[in-house]
Amino acid sequence: MNDVRPHYSHADGNKVSPTPESSEDTSQEMHFDVHPSVLFKLGEDLISDDAQALAELIKNSYDADATAVRVIVDTQHWYSLVTGERVDQGDDEQAVLGRIQVTDNGTGMTVDAIRRGWLTVSYSQKRAMKAEGGRTRGMRVPLGDKGLGRLGVQRLGRAVLLDTVPATRFEAQNEKSSVQLAYGSERAHLMIDWDRFGEAESLGSVTLTVASEPVDERPAGTSISVLGLSNRGYWTDGSAVDLQRELTSVISPYDRASGLGVTVTLNGRGVDLRQEARKLLNAAPWQMSFSFEQGRLLVTSRMSHQVLRGKGRERRVYRDLITNDGGYAFAQHLLEAKKKKAAERGMAHGDDQHFLTFRYSVDLADTVPSHVTFADPGDFLGEISSYALERESITGDEAPDDDALGFESRTEFAEYAEALSGIRVFRDGFGIRLPKDWLALSDQQTTGSSWYGLRPRNTAGYVNLTVEHNSGLLETSNREAFQDTPAWRGFYALMRDVTAEARRCLDLVRREWNEYRRESLNPTVLPGSASPAEIVEHIEERIVEAQHSSRAAETARATVEKLADSVEKLVSSSKSSESAVWSDPELARSVAQAAVEVEASRLALEGSLQELDKAWLALREVSGSAALLQEKLAVADRRITEAWEAVALGLSAELLAHEVDNIGERLRGRSYQITEYLRAQDPRDARVLGFADHVRASASELLRQSARLNPALRFRRDRKTVAALGDLLTPLIEYHRTRLETADIQLEVVIHQDFRVKINEGKLSQIVDNLILNSEYWVRRSLAQNLIERGRITLTIDTPRLTITDNGPGVSPTVQDSLFEAFVTAKPERHGRGLGLFVVRQLVESEGGEISLLEEASGVELPRTFEVDLRQSRTTDALGEVTE
């Protein structure tokens, strides 16, 4: 048999002439074709459910400059596949059950637009328009640009009936309105029966007819009817709340798309997508509004005193302390007791509905971690509300607090709130289906009924984006996520900071409310910041006072005993006088009555003194418990000190692990290269020696890194070295200087007047390490933001102080007063523990020193400068001495 197969060149794969063995050319011209199943597959993969498919149709209406869209879902009646009209089931053999009709007053579609827009997969004129910055006639930026959204319509039902009147004439709605009404005099009609595609071998074999006819001039627009619903249960199963939840995930219930009104009717009953959602946001006791504009985020928050209500006994306390004055006294206490923190959060008195308000603003650059590449996502705004889900009727004495909800019962409120929970993202009124907890609110969640942060189930809200201002936020093809772009990373960092601000405000109010409530119920002269030792001392002082009272009670007891003798004598005298000739009966009765009353008083006083004895015995037991508590606290203090030293060691170990990792990677890469080289050599050459040298050098580096931990190990914890501070810092500086040079950060030491110190070398290492690492983070951040050309960290020694200064940004005012407290940080979420400077303070104070942040003086702004005062460690002992 002759070989007639086509041959291909190796260079380009093009077909060449058959070999000479061929007697005739039997080659055929072919092209790619598509099986109809591809349409259904694309529709299923790109459109997740029926609600999103419906939203795609509404988006088309928006892009057609429609001002009104009417959606009618009918799952109960039969419709003709020929006419699309409602029929009785037995009257039409081609009748199908159910219809979704989407009708708009937009500009309609010409026959050519139907061919290119509806019948050409992935063709999109809107894509080119958006790329060129164009707009529709109604000055809208098109939402669609992939040419794939129309594929979702085939998942809705068996057939699609398209009826459209393209606009040929426009006229103003009225003299004052800029809205133009569209009119047309031609009608186009298209029927697509999806069953025909299921039977065909290729898309091209299915012929569709677009009928066009002239008509009397009428309002332009398009009506799309989906006949024979594929998933009737999606629209009918469950409650109306379920349907609202599905629709509001793709159509904003909060703010309508620009100039577009959408009405939905399900089986003859209207579905309200807006009123209940807005009512939910307004009913919540915690509300936030935020906007991002020109690179700066502004967050304003409002808190109702109902957020303090709690449960059980807490609710009774809430009524006693809050409801009488609407929380004004507590708000005033909070503003005075936490003046600086209240100022940081922009806290102020509110009104009768929200007793506290907050205001916070921050630049985009201060919300993004230094190592993350980001971009301005464009202006946007939104709201977030947090509420309590308590399934109970609004009755009785709770009614006044709950009238603002606007719901008949808390059960109804809870059901609707759960249905709309989550922070939704909408672009021009249409939803982008992100994961429900895309902002990781569950990370803030605590157990029980506490509200230290937002919780996914109890939070509802929205973010409004626009195509015009947020073009850098690109959606994936299935419209259920954003692509990982610099703009997305900037947007995500901003939204994480919004939710973090909610936690900061709620945490501040909650903690002070607990203190305020405790003070009101159990008054004490001790401040909430009193240390355990101060509390024990206070108890002991009060026990001493009680002891003095007990001694006074002993004196009173002796007086009571004398009183008993006096009463006895008085009664005896009264009886003797009765036998006298000149006795007075009235006087005798008065004396007898007085004796009875005095005896009753004596017995009552005797009982009180006995109770006082019991109280004194109880106080004596408390005294013993207080002494035991003091011993336990002393042990706890020692253990806490050891624990923080372990934390410091752990931070250093983390640094070491990072460096060892880098070195290991370099060693592995070099080893791989030299191994590949050796495999290709015969005989092997002198490069083996170079490899060995590299291994030895890397091993030495690893050992040097490990050696940095030695001074902090437990067996050397109590050893102190006497040496000049500059000498002790030299190896630390050399290590960090080499490391930081690669990051374009200069580390230098300035010695004005060196001094000798007697200090634990391990603790000193941890102090300096943490301060340098802190400066490094902020300097790297400034470099990444192009705020500085070169980083600089300076250590200055001037007896008896060591200062660390950098040219990064100054310390944020929000943390200046609490900078050295545990878990306080100005770094973005998940990029700072808030422990570094706290550990530094613990270590400095354990050596008798002090650390502080130098503040502005005389109107001169200082760079970030930390001052470590080591006057208690300064010594005149001989250098080089090591003591235990």
Q: Look at the helices and sheets and give the structural class.
A: alpha+beta
* First and last CA, distance: 99 Å
Q: Can you summarize the main beta sheet?
A: 10 strands, mixed
What's the alpha carbon Rg, rounded to whole Å?
41 Å
> How many extended strands?
28
Q: So how many helices?
A: 20
The global form is flat
- Beta-strand percentage range: 15-25%
Short description:
The chain has 884 residues and is of the alpha+beta class.
Description:
With 884 residues, the chain is of the alpha+beta class. The protein has four domains: 235 residues, Histidine kinase-like ATPase, C-terminal domain (Heat Shock Protein 90, 2-Layer Sandwich); 241 residues, no CATH class; 163 residues; 171 residues, Heat Shock Protein 90, CATH 3.30.565. The protein has 20 helices and 28 strands. Strands 3, 4, 5, 6, 7, 8, 9, 10, 11 and 12 form a ten-stranded mixed sheet that branches. An eight-stranded mixed sheet has the order 15-16-14-13-17-20-18-19, sandwiched between helices. Strands 22-24-25-27-26 form a five-stranded mixed sheet, covered by helices on one side. Strand 18 and strand 19 form a beta hairpin. Helix 15 runs antiparallel to helix 16, helix 16 packs across helix 19 and helix 18 packs parallel to helix 19. The relative contact order is 0.06. The N terminus and C terminus are likely disordered.
